[in-house]
Amino acid sequence: MAELGYEVIGYDVDEAKIELLRAGKVPFFEPGLPELLTKQVESGRLRFTTDIAEVAAFGDVHFVCVGTPQMKDNFAADLRYVHAAVDSLAPLLTRECLVVGKSTVPSGTAATLAARIAELAPGGDAVELAWNPEFLREGFAVKDTLTPERLVIGVESEHAEKVLREVWAPLTNSGIPLIVTDFATAELVKVAANSFLATKISFINAMAEICETTGADVTQLAAALALDTRIGGRFLHAGLGFGGGCLPKDIRAFMARAEELGVDQAVGFLREVDAINQRRRARMVDLAREQVGGDFAGKRIGVLGAAFKPNSDDVRDSPALDVAATVQRDGGAVTVFDPQAMVNAKVKYPQLSYAESAVEACTGADVVLHLTEWQEFRDLEPATLSAVVAGRHIVDGRNALDPARWRDAGWTYRALGRPSS
Ligand code: UGA
Predict the structure, then answer these.
(1) 18 in Cβ contact with 68 (< 8 Å)
(2) Mean pLDDT of residues grouped by 10 in the chain (421 residues)?
C-alpha cells in the first residue's frame, strides 16, 4: 500500500517481528520484499507499531490480515486471531473508518464480524466492515499484490464500495478488474479458488496413479491436456502434491463449514482431493524404499528440499518434510538440504539431520529424493553427485529433472506417474 502511495502503519502483537520490520528486515523469505520494505521504510510512508491505539487513531482503512490456520483437533479454521484483532481494534474506533478483512475465512464470518463491530465501535455507523480476499502466492507475493489478476470486494453499503474503489484506483486505473459483491460471495471466491486449484492438482495426480499402472507418462499426458485451452497447463503439474499454509487447510475448512451448513454433499469431492494428495506422499516413500532394496534399515537417504514449494522458506504441511520424516521413522538415516527453509525445518523436524549443501546431503546416500523443485536442484550436474553418493538412485518427487540426463550418467531415475525406464 505504501508503494501505491498511501501512508501506512503496520501493527502486530509480536514485538520481535515489529523490531525486525522497523530495521527493514522481513521475518520470512519472499523474493523482492526486502527491497520494497527498505524503500518504503526509507520513504517515510511505512512505519510499524505495537500500539493498537495509535493504529485506531491513524487509519481511514484498516486491513485485517491475520492467519486462519487449521484447528489442532478437527478440520475447521481457527478464527481466534481474526476475532482477537477485531475485538482489540473495534472498541478504539471513534471516527469514520473502514475495517477490511483479507484473511481466508469460512462463509458467514464477515456477517458475524460486522455485527461485532457494530456492537463494540464507539464510532457507530461511521465504522463499517468490508471483505477483500487475498489471492497472492508465496514466492510471487510482490507481483501478485501490485499486479493481481483481479480484485474482489464484498460490501454492504455504497459508501464502503466508494472507499475501496478509491483505495484500489491505482490498480483498476491500469486495467485490473474489480468485482464488487456481497460478503458471502467475497468469502466464497477465495475458498472456491483454492479448492479449484487443489482439485486440479489432485486430478493430474490421480492420472499419475493410473499412469503408474498402465505404463503411461503423466508429464506427456499433462502436456497434451494443456494444449486444450479449456483445460490449460497451470496447476497441472503432477508430483508430490500440494502443501503449505493455504490449500490443505482451506479445503478442510471448507468441508467443515459445509457440514455445519448442511451442504457437505456439495463438496464431498474435496475429501477425495485430500486423499489423493496424501497418497502421493505414501507412493513417494514406497518408490524410495524400492530403490534401496525394500527396507530403509541401515540405509542413507539424501533429501533435496524442505519447503512446501520453491522460492519459499515455508514448511507448513510440507510434502517434502512429511516424506523425509516418514522415511526416517521407517528406519532410514535421512539428511535434508534446502536453500532457504533450513531454520524452519529444524524447528519443526528436529529428529532429521541437516546438511549445508545439496552435495553434503547426498554424500554417502543410497538414494537421493528430489522433493522441492528449487532451480538449484534442477541445475545439479549428475556427475557432481555421482562422485559422492553410495548408490546412483534418484527419485524425482516433482517431475522437474531431466530423466535422460540422469540415466545417461548411469543413474536409476524414478518419478511419480512415469515409466521406470
Ligand atoms: C495458494 C494459491 O495459489 C494462492 O492464489 C492463494 O492466495 C494462497 O494459496 C493463499 O490462500 O494464501 P501458495 O500456498 O503460495 O498459494 O502456493 P501454490 O503456488 O498455490 O502451491 C501450493 C502447493 O501446490 C505447493 O506445494 C506446490 O508445490 C503444489 N503444486 C502447485 C503442485 O503440486 N502442482 C502444481 O501444478 C502446482
Answers:
(1) no
(2) 98 97 94 97 97 98 97 96 98 98 97 98 97 96 97 98 98 98 98 98 98 98 98 98 97 97 97 98 98 97 98 97 98 98 98 98 98 98 97 98 97 97 89
pTM > 0.70: yes
Angle value at C-alpha 288, between 284 and 291, nearest 5 degrees: 145
Cβ neighbours around 374 below 10 Å, total: 24
Mutation test residue for ligand 1: of 136, 187, 218, 247, the one with most atoms within 8 Å of CB: 247
With H, G, I as helix, E, B as strand and everything else as coil, classify residue 174: coil
Do residues 377 and 329 lie in contact, with contact meaning Cβ atoms separated by under 8 Å? no
The single-letter DSSP state of residue 136 is P
Predicted confidence at residue 386, as pLDDT, reads 98
Mutate to test the pocket of ligand 1, among 134, 197, 313 (most ligand atoms within 8 A of CB): 197
Q: Which three cell numbers stand for residue 109?
A: 464470518
- CB count within 10 Å of CB 127 equals 21
Q: What is the pLDDT of residue 280?
A: 98
Of 308, 318, 320, 316, residue with least CA distance to 284? 320
Question: Which residue is listed with cell 473508518?
Answer: 97
